[in-house]
């Protein structure tokens, strides 16, 4: 997946400034993240392609704000991309390399890293669960587009929960190895 399609997907929801779009992408980091520079660079390309359009919003005592929205051509491109098969993304995870070669360092070093990572995943899990409670009360009453967005959020929740579970398992295995 490329950043352009992630941006088109979010702009299909409502208009955003580049800054707000970057914040929105950060809030759903379970499937895409990008820096401000990447987002602004991509927005310029998308606008040149005619997939998004911008409107300048004048603000008092602040710099003008540029709001972006998806065009019909951008919606068409996004729909065509969605209809194409996609392949799973390759896993590139430093922690797994560390675990793979973890026998080279004392076990407590790896255990501490696992605890640190578990804490990070617990925090993300909690944030996603808060979002689930706030934005997705009764699933049956949600509009169609929110039901699809909910499924993406559920994947993020399961992803973080799996990391927490795996960290717990690995910590237990290493702790047992130390006591035997």
TrEMBL record:
Domain (Transcription regulator PadR N-terminal) ranges: 7-80
Domain Transcription regulator PadR C-terminal: 91-174
Pfam family, one: Vir_act_alpha_C
Record's protein name: PadR family transcriptional regulator
Organism encoding this protein: Aetokthonos hydrillicola Thurmond2011
Lineage: Bacteria, Bacillati, Cyanobacteriota, Cyanophyceae, Nostocales
